[in-house]
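Example: Reverse transcriptase domain-containing protein.
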Amino acid sequence: MSWVQQRKLPPCKAIQYQEQPCHTLPQLWDALHNTYNSVLDRVFDISILDSIPDMPVRGWVPFSAIEMQEALASCSNVSAPGLDHIKWSHLKMLMHGPTHIFTILLSLANACLWVGHWSKHFKESMSVIILKPNKPSYSAPKAFRPIVLLNTVGKLIEKMLSNCIQFDGVASDGAGLILMHMVHAGWAKGLKTSIIAFDVTQFFPSLNHEEYAWGDFISDLRQADIGLDPLTRGCFLLSYVDDGTLVMQSKSLLDNCDALKRAYGVIFELFKKFGLTLEHDKSEVFHFDQSHSKDNPPVNLGYAPYTGVTPLKPKLYWQYLGFYFDRKLTFTEHV
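Written out as structure tokens, the predicted fold is:
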């Protein structure tokens, strides 16, 4: 990380993979590639997506110059560059230079959406391996985190697109707003709301990486194909990247628990079809109840560690997407 400051990494021979130490750089690259591409050889079946009905297609409004300026202004000058070594500070300097450069970048961004093509140059990435803090041992690849560095111009276009999607999501009720709306609508009908929040095991490491940087060493290029995403019936499903939430409403919390258990099983099987698994020990359950009842039942997920005599127990407060929820939505804890 010479663009910021050097980070000392353990010697290569300290890394263990499948109980065997890696004594050479090629062995290290193989160990990292097998660890950070954990779904590479898994069997998957995405035919379930064929049953999802198509939504109406809406027209796309071209990016404006202001959108590009705002997206660029929020970018940090100390962020690490990708393989092209272009930093955000370089783009900001160009933005204040000759206007034809700005016009070309804006035209490029709009062309990507009009044509429906994402340049190969924008897809090239390097995964820099950094340490996860405060680990007792750094002898296994999972004690490290791959940070993917992409082309900066491509990231700028992605930021503009992300801002548009977020704006559209808020206009159409974002995930947090949808959840609060569902709870209040349920209360108006005398219903109780229960949720299970689940996490995908090694979601980001499961996305394939094509090149690795370990200290001053860089690996050879490797193939990196990416694919993912699901749906269920019975319970309402909200998802945000690797965090998913199942929502169930009825007049009984116990009925909610039974329905959530069944839906959780469906989600687990769906993710298996996509070559992914759920991290059961990170799952959470929470009940919203407007009444004065202290009933707060646990859920038997049917998967260890939350089975039988060790069910998943609700917490007093639930943190989701930056919000702290309490059972009656007073938001006192959040404030």
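Residues 253 and 295 are 8 Å apart (CA to CA).
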